[in-house]
């Protein structure tokens, strides 16, 4: 299969997967942007709003709105950067970690159930594809 047709097929498949995952969104749950920021802070630790915007490849204003929504729900906290008092660091709160864990559990459970309906060979391919998709995301 040539690269362009693979790219087109991948875009369609990933788009369908994302839409299906979004369909499970319950009002009051995290948006995809909020979940991305919360997950990054949980994995990588406290960082500045500007760095979060760069890492998620969004405008600082969009990141500011996301962080404000998370702060209003007490899912992230803001503190002065000890190394540079002019900057602030954002960090996930205990409540944010709890919500993130609950959310991961529900989404992961739904995906795991769907993967469980695949053949053993298909499950092996999905495991490899997950790794490759992560690498691909880093290349974009």
Automatic annotation (TrEMBL):
Signal sequence region: none
Keyword flag DNA-binding: yes
SMART domains per the UniProt record, alphabetical: HTH_MARR (SM00347)
Domain HTH marR-type: 1-138
UniProt entry tagged with the keyword Transcription: yes
Stored PROSITE patterns: HTH_MARR_1 (PS01117), HTH_MARR_2 (PS50995)
Key words of the record: DNA-binding, Transcription, Transcription regulation
Matches recorded under InterPro entries: HTH-type_Bedaq_tolerance, HTH_MarR-typ, Tscrpt_reg_MarR-type_CS, WH-like_DNA-bd_sf, WH_DNA-bd_sf
Protein name per UniProt: MarR family transcriptional regulator
């Amino acid at each position: 299969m040539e690269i362009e047709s693979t790219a087109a097929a991948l875009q369609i498949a990933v788009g369908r997967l994302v839409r299906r995952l979004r369909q499970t969104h319950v009002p009051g749950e995290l948006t995809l942007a909020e979940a991305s920021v919360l997950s990054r802070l949980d994995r990588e630790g406290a960082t500045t709003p500007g760095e979060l915007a760069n890492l998620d490849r969004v405008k600082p204003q969009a990141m500011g709105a996301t962080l404000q929504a998370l702060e209003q729900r007490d899912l992230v906290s803001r503190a002065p950067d000890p190394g540079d008092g002019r900057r602030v660091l954002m960090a996930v709160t205990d409540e944010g970690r709890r919500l993130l864990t609950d959310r991961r559990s529900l989404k992961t459970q739904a995906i795991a159930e769907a993967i469980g309906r695949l053949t053993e060979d298909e499950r092996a391919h999905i495991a490899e594809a997950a790794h490759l998709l992560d690498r691909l995301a880093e290349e974009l």
